[in-house]
Amino acid sequence: MGARMVVLALLAVVCSACSSEPPPPPVAPAIPTILPATTVTRAPQMVDRDLPDDCELIVPVDVLHARLGRELPGELKQVIGIPEPSIGRTAKIDCYYGVERQVLLTAPVVVGLAKYTDEATAANRVAESVDAERREGASVSQVDVGRQKASLVVTKDERLLVGSLGKTTFVSRAKAGVAPDEAVGAFLAAVAQQSMTPVEDA
After folding, report:
1. Do residues 121 and 88 lie in contact, with contact meaning Cβ atoms separated by under 8 Å?
2. Of residues 185, 186, 187, 145, the one with CA closest to residue 169
3. How far is the C-alpha of 94 from the C-alpha of 194, rounded, in Å?
4. How far is CA 31 from the centre of its chain?
5. In terms of CB atoms within 10 Å, which of 38, 150, 160, 187 comes out highest?
């Protein structure tokens, strides 16, 4: 009986010692990492677009004025062409900016788009137009329009930029003096790029 009491007493001492040990420190809850939202900005791109039937969807007047650096007098007029199967053209639209007295020939700036049956036909139409101007004595140089190459044609009375993308040809014209010669190429290129960039993407 005495031995049993000794064993119980020892167990009580051991348990008392165990209970006196400090509890482990609490584990701090993990704090989630919140990352800022990433916004993807898509730069406007030139595309082989379907031709709209409204020049404001090709080069809006306020955009043209911003590119030119001043406002043109007059108003915007448009002419929608008809298909010409003999040359492979399926659609055409010309936009006349700064028209006065309802006379299209008074427009200092003209922008046009045309759609053809295939890419080769569109490219050939551009080459034929440039060659015809060169034979008439115009000077021709290559300029960048977005990621495309186009031809800048300088004549006595006009500055003309023409090129193609896919099945679509684009042309932007300015009468001599509308913009300084050192700036007219950049102006026409910017207008041509806009004409091949859907307005909702600009």
Report:
1. yes
2. 145
3. 14
4. 42
5. 150
State the virtual CA torsion across 129, 190, 79, 133 in degrees, nearest 10: -20
Identify whether 151 is part of a domain. yes
Query: What strands lie across the sheet with 139-145, from one edge to the other?
Result: 75-81, 89-99, 109-116, 168-175, 158-165, 148-154, 139-145
Nearest in space to 176 (alpha carbons), one of 152, 196, 160: 160
DSSP helix/strand/coil, 50: coil
Evaluate whether residue 124 is within a structural domain.
Answer: yes
pTM for the whole thing? Answer: 0.77
Residue 86 in tokens: 């003999």
Beta-strand ranges (E) seen in the chain are 75-81, 89-99, 109-116, 139-145, 148-154, 158-165, 168-175
pLDDT along the chain (202 residues), means of 10: 44 45 56 48 75 96 96 96 96 97 94 98 97 96 95 97 98 97 96 90 47
Q: How is residue 195 written in tokens?
A: 């004409």
